[in-house]
TrEMBL record:
<dbReference type="GO" id="GO:0008757">
    <property type="term" value="F:S-adenosylmethionine-dependent methyltransferase activity"/>
</dbReference>
<feature type="domain" description="Methyltransferase type 11">
    <location>
        <begin position="92"/>
        <end position="140"/>
    </location>
</feature>
<dbReference type="InterPro" id="IPR029063">
    <property type="entry name" value="SAM-dependent_MTases_sf"/>
</dbReference>
<protein>
    <recommendedName>
        <fullName>Methyltransferase type 11 domain-containing protein</fullName>
    </recommendedName>
</protein>
<dbReference type="Pfam" id="PF08241">
    <property type="entry name" value="Methyltransf_11"/>
</dbReference>
<dbReference type="InterPro" id="IPR013216">
    <property type="entry name" value="Methyltransf_11"/>
</dbReference>
Length: 263
């Protein structure tokens, strides 16, 4: 399967340094050629907004970590766009494990495919307890732990692993992007949920759901692979996704976790 991933990889990213300064520039150029992928990211933005209104409360800043090349700010301008490295279109650099933010100042932190890159998740949770207002929280979109996601993510990236049995929350990291366990959300919030609740009693896991746009995400090629479906036929793909929604538990590639700081 690794040979297939290499075959499908977009030529513009084949020799890219994932920790280098040019990664965001290359991904930004690729995104401009993929309106179908933009549609996927925009749907994630609207989902984040829906879950924020449904489960969180309080007043404060709304911050996105790991905003990358298509921040939530494109859909909701009040959301601060941050990343661990500087890049075009970002508001500021912010380290999730040592956030330069005042105590009790943040209503919600959004993160799309960034949590599994945190080398020390416990430091991030301590920061959450500090910066969130009571009733505020974090909403993460992360690789799912269903059979199709586990099969695929284990084989997609040379720089990231997928190990549901890894004994530690901490994954050896060689850089901001190089070295990660894409199964981290499963490990912390499913396998080790009792430990999480014991160590961080101020933080409640209040909601989890799967994402149903896996066909569009997969066939768009994401930010690293060739697109396998024409843009003009994306409405047909949306229909297929709707018909397959009863199978999301087995086919979904991503899931969302909402964590709320107790009032």
């Amino acid at each position: 399967m690794s040979w297939l991933a290499e075959l499908l990889k977009d030529p513009s990213v084949k020799n890219i340094d994932v920790d280098g300064a040019d990664r965001l520039l290359v991904h930004s150029r690729m995104l401009e050629q993929k309106p179908m992928l933009k549609e996927v990211f925009t749907s994630f933005h609207h989902m984040f907004e829906r879950l924020d209104k449904q489960f969180l409360s309080g007043t404060g800043e709304r911050v996105e970590l790991g905003a990358g090349v298509f921040p939530i700010r494109h859909s909701y301008p009040d959301v601060l766009a941050t990343d661990i490295v500087p890049g075009p279109g970002l508001d500021r650099v912010l380290d999730a494990e040592k956030m330069d933010l005042p105590d009790n100042s943040v209503r919600v932190i959004f993160g799309q495919n960034c949590f599994h890159h945190f080398p020390h998740p416990s430091l991030f949770f301590e920061e959450l307890e500090r910066v969130l207002v009571p009733g505020g929280g974090v909403i993460f979109l992360e690789p799912f732990h269903g059979p199709f996601a586990a099969f695929l993510f284990r084989r997609m990236f040379r720089t990231e692993g997928y190990d549901k049995d890894f004994p530690s929350w901490e994954t050896p990291a060689l850089g901001p992007m190089n070295g990660a366990n894409q199964a981290l959300s499963y490990i912390v919030f499913e396998r080790d949920r009792a430990e999480f609740e014991q160590r961080f009693p101020q933080l409640d896991i209040v909601h989890q759901e799967t994402c149903s746009n896996y066909l569009m995400y997969l066939l768009s090629g994401g930010l690293n692979f060739r697109q396998l479906w024409p843009n003009w036929a994306s409405p047909l793909l949306s229909l297929f996704q709707y018909l397959l929604s009863p199978l999301d538990r087995w086919l979904a590639l991503h899931h969302v976790v909402v964590i709320r700081k107790k009032d």
